[in-house]
Design goal:
Structural class: alpha/beta
Mean pLDDT: 90
Oligomer: single chain
Low-confidence stretches: 506-526
Helix content: 40-55%
Length: 526
């Protein structure tokens, strides 16, 4: 059986797609992986979410799926409208079953069922395999675990399959490049090693001109349930027991060494685990020793201040840890209660950040995630966060996010209930880096640029900030939004121009149908 698996994401990592592809192949099925990063939208608009794909991409996708026995789409919320357009075309043109999976189908499955025959909720390897097996054998697939489908016109949601606890039982991710394809401008072409390297080079974490990164994950799940994050929903879906799982060090190192042999030119690794350092200390130390001896290239990982302690920091630094990311989010107690982060302490993160800088001899920068534009925040809360961020020791950088009401998160439900938002799809195509044009956000930008403390103290004088955040001035700042967002998009536009110059067809026409056209054809979920 041939299963075509389609990834709309900007990067080619697509860990879930590659894992399911490898799982299907290991059980005797054939797969075709199709990656559809919309580089033209990124180049033209700085974002690939709201713009339709270039004209003709859907027709090329149909051609690639003509001989498929099952077509699978992976998607997060931001890509809902783009995938809906493609999926509708596939279903109209081909008599092949279509299944959706990923984050958005998990949190909003009924909405997705309008564009698919099956919707996979939660972890997908076993469910997609069982679906493919049954279709191949001509058996009824309507009761496959994790799946949502229509039976006699009624939506049927089947029980969840258990989580895969033994992650070592999964095959290594599919990087074979066999029957892999990628969207390059307005053309879907075979994905070869040269293009793979171009996309991996285009990912920027280490600020080095010759960096070529490989992304992977050691773990699945997260030990926290923050109200702004999808993990809170997944914990409620599965329960906390065994939700946070990890592979053995042997399994992880087998992956990294095989990739190193397959693509010897990559020189950095990015671990995108939600909380890499939540692994037991002895496991981290074992990993650090093996990694230093067998891989030996710089790596990036995510910390939380809870695990920012000597016995975790020191071995990772020796192993090659070159940059880390830490969730600060807010320094305000009320906001942290809203975020379900009772463990967070401003004084503790300040103390541990100083100790981290001491242990790493100032050689490992920390990127601090901060959430702005939260409608439940006030000026006092934002200024507390600003001054905590200012006190944190260098080297540092602030990763400034605009609060986004993704469906499924706890705060999305709260905002709908209390009237903060009325449209449940309000942020489907929002880029969470596109911050509001307002004075307090300007202060965070200045801090990120290294403005002197004396100047920041003048500009952040609380009565002045209150005035600048009053409705008349918020309105005036709002008039600057197009210019402000253009500035925020500049880095992504440069990314597309620098890495894909000469590869893209400058005259690529774009479909006239907008995301709103897709939205008008779907019922808004209650």
């Amino acid at each position: 059986m041939l299963v075509a698996i389609i990834s709309p994401y900007a990067q080619l990592t697509s860990i879930g797609v590659r894992s399911i592809g490898a799982y299907l192949k290991a059980h005797g099925h054939r797969t075709r992986l199709i990656f559809l990063p919309d580089v033209i939208s990124t180049r033209d608009k700085g974002s690939d979410y709201a713009q339709p794909y270039p004209e003709g991409v859907d027709e090329q996708l149909v051609d690639l799926c003509t001989d498929a026995d099952l077509v699978a789409f992976s998607l997060s919320t931001n890509y809902f409208f783009k995938v809906a357009e493609l999926s509708r075309t596939v279903r109209e043109r081909l008599s092949v079953p279509v299944v959706w999976g990923g984050v958005h189908p998990t949190i909003s499955p009924e909405e997705c069922l309008e564009y698919a025959d099956y919707v996979c909720v939660g972890e997908g390897e076993d469910s997609i395999l069982e679906l493919a097996d049954r279709l191949e054998k001509g058996e009824n697939p309507k009761d496959v675990g994790n799946m949502l489908n229509l039976v006699d016109g009624k939506v049927v949601r089947n029980p969840l399959k258990p989580l895969i606890i033994d992650l070592d039982s999964l095959p290594q991710l599919d990087y074979s490049l066999q029957d892999h394809h990628v969207l390059l401008g307005d053309r879907i072409v075979p994905l070869d090693e040269s293009l793979m390297r171009t996309f991996w080079t285009a990912c920027s974490y280490f600020d080095q001109p010759d960096e070529v990164i490989y992304e992977t994950m050691w773990t699945r799940g997260c030990p926290y349930h923050c109200s702004f994050c999808i993990n809170g929903y997944l914990l409620g879906l599965y329960g906390e027991e065994r939700f946070f799982r990890r592979r053995s060090v042997d399994h992880l190192m087998t992956e990294l060494t095989s990739i190193r042999e397959r693509f010897p030119w990559f020189n950095n690794i990015v671990f995108t685990d939600d909380c890499f350092t939540a692994n037991p200390v002895e496991q981290l130390q074992h990993f650090a020793q093996r990694y230093r001896e067998e891989i030996g290239v710089p790596f990036f990982c995510l910390f939380t201040d809870t695990y920012m302690v000597d016995e975790r920091i020191e071995p990772l630094k020796k192993a090659g840890m070159q940059i880390v990311e830490v969730g600060l989010q807010s320094a305000d107690d009320r906001t942290n209660r809203l975020y379900r982060r009772p463990h967070f302490s401003p004084e503790r993160i300040l103390r541990r950040a100083r100790r981290f800088t001491e242990l790493t001899e100032g050689e490992v920068p920390i990127i601090y995630d901060i959430i702005l534009d939260n409608p439940y925040d006030d000026v006092d809360a934002l200024l507390k966060t600003l001054w905590l961020a200012e006190r944190l020791p260098p080297p540092k950088k602030l990763h400034l996010f605009s609060f986004t009401f993704y469906p499924g998160i706890e705060l999305h439900r709260k905002a709908l209930a209390d009237g903060t938002i009325e449209d449940p799809r309000v942020h489907y195509t929002k880029d969470n880096h596109h911050r509001e044009a307002r004075y307090v956000n300007f202060l965070f930008t200045l801090l990120n640029k290294g403005v002197p403390r004396w100047m920041l103290k003048i500009l952040a004088f609380k009565p002045w900030v209150r005035l600048m955040e009053s409705p008349p001035f918020r309105f005036l700042f709002g008039l600057l939004k197009p210019l402000y967002w253009r500035m925020l998009r500049a880095d992504r536009i440069r990314w597309a121009e620098q890495n894909f110059a000469g590869m893209l067809d400058e005259g690529s026409p774009r479909r006239t149908e907008s995301s709103a056209d897709v939205e008008s054809k779907a019922d808004t979920p209650a």
